[in-house]
Amino acid sequence: MPSLEEELFPSTPGKFKIERSHNSMNRQFHRCFASTSTMFLWALFLIALTASYLSFQSFVDSGSRYFSASWGGIQWEKQVRASAQIHRNNGMSVLVTGAAGFVGTHVSMALRKRGDGVVGIDNFNSYYDVSLKKARRSLLAASHGVFVVEGDINDAKLLAKLFDVVAFTHVMHLAAQAGVRYAMENPHSYVHSNIAGLVTLLEACKSANPQPAVVWASSSSVYGLNVDVPFSESDRTDQPASLYAATKKAGEEITHTYNHIYGLSITGLRFFTVYGPWGRPDMAYFSFTRNILQGKPITIYRGKNRVDLARDFTYIDDIVKGCLGSLDTSGHSTGSGGKKRGPAPYRIFNLGNTSPVTVPVLVSILEKHLKVKAKKNFVDMPGNGDVPFTHANITLSRREFGYKPTTDLQTGLKKFVKWYLSYYGYNHGKGKL
Q: Where are the transmembrane segments (predicted)?
């Protein structure tokens, strides 16, 4: 009987017999190994499949806060159709995203007032006071008959349903995660809303039949570290100073791609520091007003060498005029069934006031209208993504659709303060919020 050494190293007499035995063992080993490998691969596949499922479930669970709103049904469809009904000759039917937001509310009211059909969508996130968003929704419903669907633009099924119920001629895309500084706390919310949400919406638009024309809110923040003033659409925008600005710049590149490949008519609007009644509480003029009324100190940032920050503050009514002018001149998308049939318009415009004002001057105007002196703390601007100044060149928007801002900061802040006192109240030195 051969030894173990002989079996492993067949170099002794009887080599042929031992090698034949060895080959037989090799075949058995390979068959066994092949069988084991197959089982191992299947095990890996099942593990991967399970992990993928669990990951998907985790995504669904984590995203439930975005897609939790109920929608659908006969009554819901009736509300959507009624809100989308056009009441003027050659009118348009517009889906307004972020309709319960600051700009979205004002644009929806203006469209409805002139007889266009409007359906809104908003996810009512908690970035700032949700009750203010709900109050705007009530204003739209009660005074203008605009139905705002509670839902997220990342919900592809909801968007598909809306386009199935209504053949929208236009989309006014204003939904976004706003704010420069908040990006340092919650960067993923900007990617979710400003990039993923935009792509989901554009996918719905390119697949719709007919394809709508799309007007959407970019931002003056895309000019980033640009030092050429006033900011022109032809200036470089590849040096963003904040994640918010980066997502808006990414949005401009993404929309260009969908225009080029799918024939979507797309207009991007670079807003410059919008303010006014029903505004956003996170904006400086809004928080200054609240704190001044409550007797709390306000923080005023200064740039390098104690240079005052300046902004091209643009009143909401002027922004609305620009939005409607962009919709009216947007042209038509040229795709059908997701296929491009010809070139479609692609445009980008600045919407600003063209008259930058320093923050200390803004505060002095608020003090005048509030009749209260502010307690001021001047500090150096932190590295949080803010830029020292903004200034819009509006030559292009003026030429293309007659954009012309008419409200100066003094007048605009007076209207804002009147609304603020009416909405929140003010009693013996204590503002209510």
A: 32-56
Q: Which of 182, 244, 262, 315 is catalytic?
A: 244
Q: Report how far residue 184's alpha carbon sits from residue 1's, in angstroms, rounded to the nearest whole number.
A: 77
Q: Could you give the C-alpha distances from 421 to 114, 253, 432, in angstroms and in order?
A: 29, 41, 9
Please report where in the chains the tokens 């030429």 appear, as a residue.
Answer: 399
* Torsional class of 278: left (φ above 0), alpha (ψ -120 to 50), beta (otherwise): left
Instruction: Encode burial over 30-42: b for 16+ CB neighbours within 10 A, e otherwise.
Output: eeeeeeeeeeeee
The answer to whether the Cα torsion of 149, 153, 158, 160 is positive or negative is positive
Residue 23 phi, psi dihedral angles, 5° rounding: -65, -35
Sequence-ordered list of residues with C-beta below 8 angstroms from that of 111, at least 6 positions apart, any chain? 92, 94, 96, 118, 172, 324, 327
Q: Strands 357-358 and 310-311: what pairing?
A: antiparallel
Name the β-bridge partners of 392: 231
User: What is the SS3 assignment for 49-114?
Assistant: HHHHHHHHHHHHHHCCCCCCCCCCCHHHHHHHHHHHCCCCCCCCEEEEECCCCHHHHHHHHHHHHC
pLDDT digits (tens, 9 = 90+) for 187-204: 999 999 999 999 999 999
Q: Is 388 helix (H, G, I), strand (E, B) or coil?
A: coil
Mean pLDDT of 279-287: 97
> Which residue is it, tokens 């090698």?
19
Strand partners, 117: 93
For residues 211 and 335, the answer to whether their CB atoms sit within 8 Å is: yes
Does 56 score more than 70 pLDDT? no
Residue 410 pLDDT more than 70? yes
* Verdict on whether the full-model pTM lies above 0.85: no
Distance between CA atoms of residues 128 and 278, nearest Å:
13
Distance of CA 160 to the CA centre of its chain: 19
What is the torsional sign of CA 376, 185, 241, 128?
A: negative
Q: Identify any residues that bridge with 120 across adjacent strands, giving them in sequence order.
A: 96, 148
Count the alpha carbons within 13 Å of 105 in the hemisphere toward its beta carbon. 22
User: In terms of Cα–Cα distance, which of 258, 320, 277, 25 is closest to 136?
Assistant: 277
Encoded amino acid at 13, one letter = P
Quick check: 344 and 263 in contact, CB under 8 A? yes
* Phi then psi dihedrals of residue 381, to 5 deg: -65, 125
Answer yes or no: are the C-beta atoms of 169 and 213 closer than 8 Å: yes
Residues contacting residue 426 through CB under 8 Å, at least 6 positions apart: 293, 432
Kindly report which listed range (96-100, 410-414, 429-433) carries the lowest average pLDDT score.
429-433
